[in-house]
Amino acid sequence: MTLTETDSARTVKPALQYAQPQPMWMRRSLRRRVTLCLLLLAAGLMTWGFGRAVIERVVLLNAQRNCLAAVLPADKVVYENHPSRARSLATADSRYVMLGSSGPACWYSKNWETLNRLVSPPGGKPAATLFCGELVSPGGNRRLVVVEAYRESTDSTGQGILLFKSTVVVPGSLLNPPRVQPPAILSHPAGDVLPFDRRFPLRIFAAQPDRSDRSHFSCKMEMNDMICTFEGSLRDDDRVSLAAVPEGESPIR
User: Which of 46, 50, 214, 217 is 20 to 30 A from 142 (CA-CA)?
Assistant: First the structure.
């Protein structure tokens, strides 16, 4: 059988056109570019994470610095349980917190609130910041010490009791964050309770560091219709000894 021209055209297969292979130097260049891009991406992610951590640490250390250097005026009222005076303080200054509809009014340190939230999220409940500053123990331990009056209570005889909380912080650095020591809940300066007569107002002023003793602070307190000295001392075991001493008596160290 004779093939026609048409049949011959149908039986011829078209030749495939193959692209020329890329030279070796081009393939190596592409691999190097991909590797470089991946390395740059990884470096960017690491730098972003590290930079964010550095910024957070700087903010924390700035709050710590403000707390260590904080000194309030000696006539600053930080705790007031007289109802009308408590309301007046809370109305005049937003840093006062009313613990109840009629008080007491407590002045809460903004610096300590910020640092406490950063170091121990979500932070603590507002309380009267009696003292917030740097103390150095007799053995030379530098610490941030915060003493707060956070609640009134009543004993079985109907007498008032004021409860305190002391917090000791080991200052941090760029390499090490601040370390909060276990807080001590103290109902009394000398280990029992700090009673007060509810017939009389209780008012506490901001504590001041002792210039002659870097482990010690003190403040004035109006209690039981008399003036007392409220004081504290940092010990070498990172505990704070507290005491309330009537005017005219020798301070307890």
Answer: 50
What domain range includes position 203?
A: 54-246
- Sequence-separated (6 or more) residues with CB below 8 Å from residue 163: 149, 150, 151, 152, 153, 185, 186, 187
Evaluate whether residue 17 is within a structural domain.
no
Joined together, the tokens standing for residue 133 give 């500053």
Phi, psi of 98 (to 5 degrees): -85, 120
pTM here is: 0.74
Residue type, 157: T
Using DSSP's 3-state secondary structure scheme, residue 107 falls into strand
Query: Is 84 a domain residue?
Result: yes
Q: How many domains in the chain? A: 1
With 0-12 / 13-18 / 19 or more C-beta atoms within 10 angstroms meaning exposed / middle / buried, residue 189 is: buried
- Whether 81 is in a domain gets the answer yes
Q: Please indicate, yes or no, if residue 90 is contained in any of the structural domains.
A: yes
Q: What is the pLDDT along the chain (253 residues), one digit of tens a residue?
A: 554 555 554 555 555 555 555 555 455 666 777 777 777 766 655 555 556 777 888 889 999 999 999 999 999 999 999 999 999 999 999 999 998 888 899 999 999 999 999 888 878 888 999 999 999 999 999 999 999 988 788 877 778 888 888 999 999 988 888 999 876 666 554 444 567 888 888 999 999 999 999 999 999 999 888 888 989 999 999 999 888 887 655 444 4
